[in-house]
Structure formats: structure tokens, C-alpha cells
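wait is this the right file?? whatever heres the structure
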């Protein structure tokens, strides 16, 4: 199942140079590409974790990121690296040569970023990851160093603890169809709220209601759901159809990362945010 926000349009590409105002990582000491090292053991406590930036320093001075954006770096199973600089998502295979991170090629999603400066920032971050930076892991803290650039990061679960399924009002932010995601139509809102008593309240964007549910660590099984029967056309009707396509599957996969809940029932899914 997906563990993160759903993004569409993966295209394989080497990261291009960023805008002039972004720092340039120090190039690799080797003037030409070298083969990847043989896979080495992932440092204890690194694999399966995601880290978020808390500071970026260049030439000994703080280097601010765009707006409230963060750098994210995840080390997943099968030596898969996931990264983001606030807009698109990057990913690819990685290897470790001692404490040196080796990434030969990154894939990136292809969404337009607002503000545009985020595009330059993610290009710079992609360059940094490709520059064979060194990694230093100390408990929940990870330091990524490339030349005069030092990125200090902390475990995402420490910086952004996962919300609990029970309690928050989960508002639908995007609709998942296959491998693509689309935003909820403007002007309409749908939400779910799971109670400790095994009941769920909901609003589909058109009708309201509720029912029963049971949940384990990865699946939610809904009992019979009863809702009002108001007819809604346009955006409200479209949102209701998307919500019910997931809930009517009865048993759905779910995952929570920070304040984001993902529900998936086959090719249909929802991304929700805790409020």
C-alpha cells in the first residue's frame, strides 16, 4: 500500500542545475561517473526511516529554505531512496560506500511548483544527493554533508508524530484513482471521524451519516453505513461518489504518516488530513 502522499507522472530524469541563488553542492572528487559500490550493510537504525530537515548551513552560515518547506529523505526497503524538497517527489536506488551515499539516478514527479522557487530548491537538493554526500547518524539525528553544505535532519516520527486513527476529524484532501491523485473540487468538504466506541461519523460532501467499524494496524472494516439521501449534482456529487467508492468496499487498507491518512480499496483511494 502507499505510505505517503500520492503523486502522479513519474519520469526518469537526472536532476538539472538549480537557480543561481541556491547553493551548489561540491562535485564528486571523481571527474567521471564511477560504478556503484557493491551493496554494503545499511547503518543500523537507518533503513525504513524518513528524516526531515531542521537546518541547512552553507559556508558556516544559515541557508533558509523556501517558505515553510522542508527537505525530506527516506531510506526504504530494497535500497530505495525517497526524497522531497517541498513540491515534487524524487526516488531511486542507492548504495552506501562506507558513510558515503551513492545515488546514480533519481526519478522525479513532474508537477508545477508554487512558488516557482521550489523547483530550483528541489533541483539543488537532487544535485546534493547525487554529489556523494556523507551521512552521519546519531540516534534520531542525521547529518548530510556535501562540501561546505551541512543539512541537519531529525527522524520524521520524532519531528512529526503520527496522528491516531481515533479522535481527529479526517478531512478528504485528494482523491486517488489508480496511480494518480486529484484535489477535492473547490467549495465542497468531506470528512470521517472514528470514535473509540467502534462507530464512525462521516460527511460525503453531500450527505451525512455513520456506522460501525473495526480496525487493526493496517485495515479498516466498515459495517453497514447509513446516510441521508439528499441528491447532489456537480462537485458535491462527484466527491460523494469518490468517497463511497472507497467506503462501500467495506474492508480498506490504511496508513497514517504524520497528519495524513491514506485509505485504499483497490484502484480507488482517499488522502485525508487530521484536523
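ok assuming it is, sequence goes like this
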Amino acid at each position: 500500500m502507499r505510505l505517503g502522499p500520492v503523486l502522479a507522472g513519474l519520469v526518469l530524469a537526472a536532476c538539472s542545475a538549480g537557480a543561481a541563488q541556491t547553493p551548489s553542492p561540491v562535485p564528486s572528487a571523481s571527474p567521471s561517473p564511477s560504478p556503484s559500490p557493491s551493496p554494503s550493510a545499511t547503518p543500523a537504525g537507518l533503513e525504513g526511516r524518513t528524516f526531515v530537515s531542521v537546518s541547512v548551513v552553507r559556508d558556516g552560515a544559515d541557508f533558509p529554505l523556501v517558505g515553510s518547506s522542508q527537505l525530506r529523505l527516506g531510506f526504504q526497503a530494497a535500497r530505495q531512496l525517497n526524497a522531497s524538497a517541498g513540491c515534487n517527489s524524487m526516488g531511486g536506488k542507492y548504495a552506501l560506500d562506507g558513510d558515503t551515499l551513492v545515488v546514480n539516478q533519481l526519478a522525479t514527479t513532474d508537477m508545477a511548483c508554487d512558488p516557482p522557487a521550489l523547483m530550483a530548491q528541489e533541483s539543488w537538493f537532487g544535485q546534493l544527493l547525487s554529489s556523494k554526500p556523507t551521512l552521519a547518524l546519531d540516534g534520531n539525528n542525521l547529518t548530510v554533508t556535501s562540501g561546505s553544505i551541512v543539512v541537519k535532519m531529525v527522524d520524521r516520527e520524532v519531528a512529526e508524530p503520527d496522528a491516531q486513527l481515533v479522535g481527529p476529524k479526517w478531512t478528504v484532501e485528494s482523491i486517488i484513482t489508480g496511480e494518480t491523485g486529484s484535489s477535492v473540487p473547490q467549495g465542497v468538504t468531506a470528512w470521517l471521524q472514528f470514535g473509540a466506541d467502534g462507530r464512525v461519523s462521516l460527511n460525503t460532501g453531500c450527505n451525512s451519516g455513520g456506522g460501525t467499524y473495526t480496525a487493526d494496524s493496517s485495515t479498516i472494516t466498515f459495517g453497514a453505513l447509513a446516510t441521508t439521501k439528499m441528491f447532489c449534482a456537480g462537485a458535491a456529487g462527484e466527491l460523494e461518489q469518490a468517497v463511497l467508492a472507497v467506503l462501500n468496499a467495506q474492508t480498506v487498507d490504511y496508513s497514517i504518516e504524520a497528519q495524513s491518512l491514506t485509505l485504499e480499496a483497490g484502484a480507488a483511494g482517499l488522502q485525508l488530513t487530521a484536523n
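Residues 11-159 form a domain with the Lipocalin fold (CATH 2.40.128.270). so i think its the right one actually
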